[in-house]
Amino acid sequence: MFGCKSLCWDSVPEFTDPDPLPFSLPSPLPQWPQGGSFACGRICLGEIEVIKVNKFEKVWRCTSLNGKSLGFTFYRPLEIPEGFFCLGHYCQSNDQPLRGYVLVARDTSSDASTLESPALEKPLNYSLIWSLDSHDECVYFWLPNPPTGYKAMGIVVTSSPNEPEVEEVRCVRDDLTESCETSDLLLTVKSKYSKDSFQVWNTQPCDRGMLARGVAVGAFFCGSTSVDPEQVVDIACLKNLDSSLHAMPNQNQIHALIQHYGPTVYFHPDEKYLPSSVQWFFKNGAVLHAAGNKKGIAIDYQGSNLPSGGTNDGAFWIDLPTDADARNNLKKGNIESAELYVHVKPALGGAYTDIVMWVFCPFNGPATLKVALMNIEMNKIGEHIGDWEHFTLRISNFTGELWSVYFSQHSGGGWVNAFDLEFIKGNKPIVYSSKDGHASFPHPGTYLQGSSKLGIGVRNDAAPSKFIVDSSIKYQIVAAEYLGDGVIAEPCWLQYMREWGPTIVYDSRSEIEKIINLLPLFVRFSVENLFELFPTELYGEEGPTGPKEKDNWLGDEYC
After folding, report:
1. How far apart are CA 267 and CA 273, in angstroms?
2. Amino acid 137: pLDDT
3. Closest by Cα among 388, 438, 405 to 559
4. Rounded CA gap, 102 and 5, in Å?
5. How far apart are CA 177 and CA 240, in angstroms?
6. pLDDT, mean of residues 380-402
């Protein structure tokens, strides 16, 4: 993920660092199975067709004088196919490989020039947003001013003070656009001559998720710190009006993608609570409880006797058997039976495919708290029955290329670009599952959920081991709604919307208070509420729900 770079210049930056090199996956892409428009290089959004352009001409490069950052480069797209038009310029950090893109667009109408309101229109003129003008280097940032009823899609960067030609970009008709918002703050340029700094952000559609239709252009947004970055009104994203989502992969292509990109999941060498298949969990003693009944009932191997639909109303929950041996056996899991449960869905308006891979573990072990130099293994705190974790592969529907992977980590997580992943074989990434808690990470190591500055929080340890699950082989597609009703037979247990484990109530606050009292006084007095450093799930555990009850089933991943 991008980080914010803050640059403060008293003179023009230097331009001596090497240019970023293009990135490619470890192995060439295969020939995907035929059918539809997946990986055909272009996507029709209705009245507009778009193509990704990833060849650029450098317009301006800024490098920090303090040597702490390689800075950023601003580019204009090159080799735009005939009939297509630029929508905005591109910016990226020099700290990473050159892998970005901007979309270029064409009007799909047979003779757009005769239409009263064509899909694309030239801007009326430009407004200068910011400039750096010296005898050594000059750069100018321009916002296209669209005609009435149209929206600008991005910013234009020039090295000349002359206003750009109106032919440089196109604006898009209002009804073919979606509102957008800033995401990553890329850089801040501070000036000793002004209280306002110049800032540059990536943008993304405001509404994201399986049903959303906003398509990111790949351009950036910029302005002074006096501009509210949450209110991006000057530029917009595209809108996919093609209800068929023809660029999404068909069933054969989905299997090919999973077999080509399916990660290998490493569980920790000291993991005591391994994954299993859902069927193994049911077959080996899991029981269904109903409110008001003391005795649970055995669950059918396929989960056919689980209550279907509804909401998580507390009327039912799943538990381990009462027999101690059977209970302990179930907690351990069964990695030989384990498989990944796959949900395939559109992302960013159908320009990408999200392949969400769910891992089921019968039991989530207790937490290990890190307090400064101490590591304290808890007895019960953090435990729960029925642990669902996931990671997500984001695939470009233009090329079929793996773009990034989302690593879910308890109540949060984050996207990691493909160039920052570890690969085990070909283009298959590695996912490290943390000890006891099963959170997903891109690299081995110790990760702290809490305050890394104070060294206080829940410890997550990830490492390679002999305990692996190869998701390119051991998987089951459980849902892909966009393919249509009945194409994918959803398993019975997927319709179970209640808790996969009983709600556990324990006095963890007093236990954590004892730990806090071990801290030096200066730490205890420097933080207003030390309890907030520990995840809320430590203060009692509601039984976890299944995949369909998670926000990311319909929505975008939480970052």
Report:
1. 10
2. 78
3. 405
4. 22
5. 8
6. 93
322 Cβ partners below 8 Å, 6+ apart? none
Please spell the DSSP secondary structure of 438-468, one letter per residue.
--EESSSEEEEEEETTTTEEEEEEE---S-E
Amino acid type, 50: V
CB 462 within 8 A of CB 432: yes
- Which two structure tokens, joined as six digits, stand for 478? 């459980």
Longest dimension (CA), the chain: 83
- Mean pLDDT check: name the lowest of 48-57, 279-288, 445-454, 544-553: 445-454
Contact predicate 492/306, CB 8 Å: yes
Residue type, 237: C
Sign of the four-CA dihedral 469, 472, 473, 479: positive
> Residue 11 and residue 179: Cα distance in Å, rounded?
37
For residue 425, what is the enclosing H or E element?
A: strand 423-425
Q: What pTM value is reported for the model?
A: 0.92
The sheet carrying 5-8 orders its strands as: 5-8, 180-190, 198-205, 220-224
Confidence class for position 4, pLDDT limits 50, 70, 90: very low
Catalogue the E-assigned strands of 78-124. Answer: 85-86, 90-93, 102-107, 120-121
Q: Is 514 helix (H, G, I), strand (E, B) or coil?
A: helix
Identify the pLDDT of residue 378.
78
Q: Which residues contact 186 (CB under 8 A, 6 or more apart)?
A: 2, 4, 5, 72, 91, 92, 93, 200, 201, 202, 220
Q: For the chain, give every domain's residue range.
A: 40-237, 249-362+383-447+454-502+543-547
| Residues facing residue 224 across a β-bridge | 198
Measured CA to CA, the distance from residue 268 to residue 276 in angstroms comes to 15
In one-letter notation, the amino acid at residue 231 is Q
- List pLDDT tens digits, range 181-223: 998 888 888 766 667 788 899 999 999 999 999 999 999 999 8
Please, how many CA atoms are within 13 Å of residue 128, restricted to the half-sphere of its CB? 12
Q: How many CB atoms lie within 10 A of CB 402?
A: 24
Q: Is 107 helix (H, G, I), strand (E, B) or coil?
A: strand
Burial class (CB in 10 A: 0-12, 13-18, 19+), 112: middle
Confidence of residue 457 (pLDDT cuts 50, 70, 90): confident
